[in-house]
Amino acid sequence: MASTRCLGRLARSVFYANNSRQIVRPAHLHTSYTRFSNIDGEFTKAKERLGTLKEDPGNEVKLNLYALFKQATVGKVNISRPGMIDFVGRAKWDAWNSLGDITQVQTTDSGDVLLKRDGKISIIQLNRPNKKNAIKTEMYATISDMLEEAGKDDSTLTVITGSLKSGKVTISTQNSITRVVLNYNPQRKFIGSFIDFPKPLIAVINGPAIGVSVTALGLFDIVYATDRANEVLLFNKKLTAEEACERGLVTEVFPDDIFQSEVWARIRKMSQLPPQTMHLSKSLIRAHHQDKLHQVNDKECKQLVERWQSEECANAVMKFFQSKPQ
């Protein structure tokens, strides 16, 4: 981890960061987009299924569904914004308009991870706000694939962040013990995709973070955090964002009330810098550490599997659940 932190500091000294309004473009990779003739029927069925949910998904999800449907069937917004007293109409229009020039091919179903595009910026967004954006085992492969795609597209840089809900965001880990024991390849590929990512990679930490979302921060070139991120968990100790910054895990901390506007302004400004120069600069920095980082990653994943199978781990898990209030 020391080498990854050192790498992070080196990379951060080379790149400058700087507003973007986030454009919601959920995406699943390797999906066919040829069934537009039946999309009206599918959308109607999706609306009907929403009514059967035990828990209301919330207005944000409904607006995203509406916006994606309109973008897929009509394209870019082509009507004027409704009047001031039409609150529902204005909210729908805003959601649709936020998709900008996204084409039908780019508009796909949403999921636990969203791949979005804002100008020259690729955005990977964890999208499980009801579960505090915990990373499930299946999401390791999804994020790895999205990083691979973002590394090959024509974007200048990539941002990873989490979805907002009730003003709080947690980027954390939720693993199946059995799956980790049986196969460590998803975790190895996941970290490996950060090690090999060829473009500037920025973390926007807009809430508490634990697990691999903290330990991987050293592999980012820039890490921005809100001062609301007061529970960065490392070595079983909660750190504030300021403490994480002092230890080199975070590049800069911002007051929460200006966090989004200031950070996205910097990111957008950075995205206008010469892309090839930034990519070559990162390549020169990363080349000296890349093989070593892969060796460490492989060794750590193997030891993780060994630890999960150990008696010590079993006892610790039992002790944890026994200590939880009934």
TrEMBL record:
GO terms for cellular component: peroxisome. One of its GO terms (molecular function) is delta(3)-delta(2)-enoyl-CoA isomerase activity. Residues 39-119 form the ACB domain. Keywords: Isomerase, Peroxisome. Pfam families: ACBP (PF00887), ECH_1 (PF00378). It comes from the Eukaryota. It is found in: Peroxisome. PROSITE patterns: ACB_1 (PS00880), ACB_2 (PS51228). Signal peptide: none annotated. CDD domains: crotonase-like. Gene3D superfamilies: 1.20.80.10, 2-enoyl-CoA Hydratase, Chain A, domain 1, 3.30.300.220, 3.90.226.20, Lyase 2-enoyl-coa Hydratase, Chain A, domain 2. This is ACB domain-containing protein. It comes from Paralvinella palmiformis.
